[in-house]
Give the backbone structure.
Amino acid sequence: SAVISQKPSRDICQRGTSLTIQCQVDSQVTMMFWYRQQPGQSLTLIATANQGSEATYESGFVIDKFPISRPNLTFSTLTVSNMSPEDSSIYLCSVLDGYNEQFFGPGTRLTVL
Amino acid sequence: AQSVAQPEDQVNVAEGNPLTVKCTYSVSGNPYLFWYVQYPNRGLQFLLKYITGDNLVKGSYGFEAEFNKSQTSFHLKKPSALVSDSALYFCAVRASSRMNDMRFGAGTRLTVKP
């Protein structure tokens, strides 16, 4: 199984600022994803992070708001830009391994004031 | 597009009793089905999956799930619940043809009382 770490684990930010979340995997993986889990709700896929190319965003999510980088097969970042209180969520990094199992990081709990 | 329904927001059982957390799905083509558990202030932990083969799948911590194609269900079960099983459980589905599109159910909060 893949071991995933995220930084920061939590943060409290002011409206209008941006936060970059880092995701590190202990092995090379082809597919990495970013999810959002709003308070009391299920997980929603934000985008698939593609190594060496632009991320693929789901309906309702745009690159200007959630820019993503994936410089190699073990690392990705998600930036939450120009934050508002509605962006308060848990943001989860996820990877798909070669056995069709999908693993999740511990999450980054973001509170926007 | 695929979707998952978890009809119960909350399931309460007594310790030592069997538990069932329900899940039904909708997908075009062959489904890949998963159960995850989320403890407070923790990420999601993988419990088990169904890809192909035996309809009864055994996973971590004594949990199992049964794939029922005719009823499009994938209910999570455990013969004897523990207080430590109390957590939020998510069912998820992915079409075999769409590896980048996993859909999650709304989650079921399981509470096991001593």
Summary: The longest strand of chain A covers residues 89-96. The mean pLDDT of chain A is 93. Chain A touches chain B at residues 1, 4, 31, 33, 41-45, 48, 56, 92, 96, 100-107, 109 (CB under 8 Å).
